[in-house]
Write a structure and sequence with these properties.
Blueprint lengths: L1 E9 L4 H16 L4 E7 L16 E8 L2 H8 L4 H8 L3 E9 L7
Antiparallel strand pairs: 1-3, 1-4, 2-3
Amino acid sequence: MIYAMATIDLREGTRAAFLEEFRKVVPLVQAEDGCLEYGAAVDLPTSIPVQIPVRPDTVVIVEKWRDQAALEAHAVAPHMTPYRESIKDFVVQISAQILVPAGADG
């Protein structure tokens, strides 16, 4: 199993519009072979001292995949091209972390 965390920095004030487009693709991604979890998360304001400042124009996509092959197939799935086109005007930057559970990396 692997995790993918995609942090998407958005143009100011576009988070709601981005999430509207994201929600359209969620069922298609969740139906992909090997998808175990796929959803969006946003910062929650708390009083926890180590928390980074809240980012109102950032969305984190939390993903869990059976294996790397499933994640790589997701990246080229046919529904991802129109999705990427639908969000391109909202996105400033995307960064990703691909992780494995500790101890599973050899």
